[in-house]
Design brief:
This protein is mostly helical and 429 residues long. It has one domain: Up-down Bundle (Formate dehydrogenase/DMSO reductase fold), CATH 1.20.1630.10. The protein is 70% helix and 0% strand. The protein has helices at residues 2-13, 19-45, 60-73, 76-84, 88-91, 94-115, 138-165, 172-198, 211-237, 244-274, 281-288, 297-315, 317-320, 323-343, 365-393, 403-407, 412-423.
Length: 429
């Protein structure tokens, strides 16, 4: 019964909100409708309506997928200080980090679905149902780690919220093993994704031992940056208690990770350009153009400029203490990593081809609109999950609110038993 009431009350909370809340919901649904409409066209005509080709088979969809896997993995930067170092200020907002992780994985999976020309065959990728060549295939490993990470975060979040809904504080010993497993799993999802690229010997641009640590470093700067933006919005718009110390901790993490990310980029560029060979052709195309083709060059230089500006703000203490500049640095970091890790990594791996041919790629409106729709689905999912979760965490939604309503239909003996049970419940501190 309590479980049914939990879902009922959480669903009711979603219908309570200000005019701004409903305007945001309507706006997201409009973007979703746009994406669905264009996806129907892609589904009926095939991937020929996109700018992808046999020469560049991974495009804008997989670029977004790669970025979002990093965002999902970076949620661990809230979990580690909250539970390993017992930071109460971060534990108060760790559920928002879990929600961000769940949303990011969900969006990443959607990008894989739209990238498949025959989504009706997606069941082949479902563990225990399909035949997806596990454990030989790295793609199969990616499906396993993403699915596992999604289930772990959903399970932990549900356990905590359901306990608080009942007016009880969840015992750490009951879910700490799953927290530790989730930390390991967070690292694994991005490592396996990096291995998908680096194990491809036919693409010299990806065939790099630094790719996995570079992936993790970029995730640990873009993820906390996005988390900071979300926490500041939640604090301002939802009046949710977010301590400045939690934001400052994430800011330090983001700064260090951004330094490491740029160092890895410099190390790779040195290897590519100091001793130029056929292996550096993709890097030359990306940064300086190749054979007159240079569509991606403005993208990568923009990304590097944004990241350098962001790092400058974060490293100069007076600038970092300015709330506007600090938020600006977070936004620049998210955009810069999104470009560098997506368009600046996935696409150049295909250019030039192993035969030396140059087939340039930029996403068309179909790909952009569908991607916008998926991002809108993710934002809608996060908004709804976060709204219900914050209401439970603040004590606005409790099982106790329904005591009289539920007891109305019970006998006297049943009422006495339920009231005795409720008397032994400890409220959340």
């Amino acid at each position: 019964m309590a479980l049914i009431l939990f879902f009922r009350d959480a669903f009711r909370e979603l219908w309570r909100g200000s005019l701004l809340y409903w305007a945001w919901i309507v706006f997201l649904w409009a973007l979703i409708a746009l994406g669905v409409w264009n996806y129907i066209g892609q589904l009926s005509s095939g991937l020929v309506v996109t700018n992808m080709s046999n020469q560049v088979s991974w495009g804008f969809y997989i670029s977004n997928f790669t970025f979002l896997v990093g965002v999902a993995a970076a949620a661990v930067m809230l979990v580690i200080p909250a539970y390993i170092f017992d930071r109460k200020d971060i534990r108060d907002v760790v559920l928002l980090g879990d929600t961000m992780a769940v949303t990011a994985v969900f969006m990443a999976m959607l990008f894989v679905v739209v990238d498949i020309g025959r989504p009706d065959r997606i069941w082949h990728m479902i563990p225990l149902i399909g035949s997806f060549n596990f454990p030989v295939s790295l793609l199969a490993w990616d499906v396993v780690v993403l699915s596992g990470y999604l289930l772990l975060n959903l399970g932990i979040s549900f356990f905590l919220l359901f306990s608080h809904y009942q007016g009880r504080e969840a015992k750490l010993k009951n879910y700490l093993p799953f927290i530790m497993l989730a930390i390991f799993w967070a690292i694994s999802i991005h490592t396996v994704t990096a291995f998908l690229y680096s194990a491809n010997t036919g693409r010299p641009f990806w065939h790099n031992a630094l790719l996995a640590p570079r992936f993790i470093a970029s995730a640990f700067c873009s993820g906390p940056a996005l988390a900071i933006i979300i926490l500041q919005l939640v604090r301002r718009l939802a009046r949710y208690p977010v301590r400045q110390s939690a934001i400052d901790t994430l800011g330090i993490t983001m700064t260090v990770a951004l330094q490491i990310t740029l160092f890895f980029v410099i190390a790779e560029l040195f290897t590519d350009f100091y001793s130029e060979g056929t292996h550096s052709a993709s890097a030359r195309y990306l940064f300086f153009g190749l054979h007159g083709a240079s569509k991606l060059t403005p993208w990568i230089w923009t990304a590097l400029a944004l990241l350098v500006i962001a790092l400058t703000i974060l490293m100069v203490y007076p600038l970092r203490r300015n709330p506007v500049l600090f938020t600006t640095a977070c936004v620049l970091t998210v955009i810069g990593v999104w470009i560098e890790k997506g368009m600046g990594l996935v696409i150049p791996g295909y250019i030039p081809t192993p035969l030396g041919e140059v087939f340039e790629y930029l996403p068309n409106w179909t790909e952009v609109s569908i991607s916008i729709g998926i991002w809108a689905i993710g934002l809608l999912t996060f908004t709804l999950l976060a709204k219900a979760g914050m209401a439970i965490e603040r004590g606005q939604v409790r099982l106790r609110d329904d005591i009289e309503e539920e007891l109305a239909g019970l006998t006297d003996d049943e009422k006495d038993g339920d009231m005795e049970s409720l008397a032994h419940q400890q409220p959340v501190k």
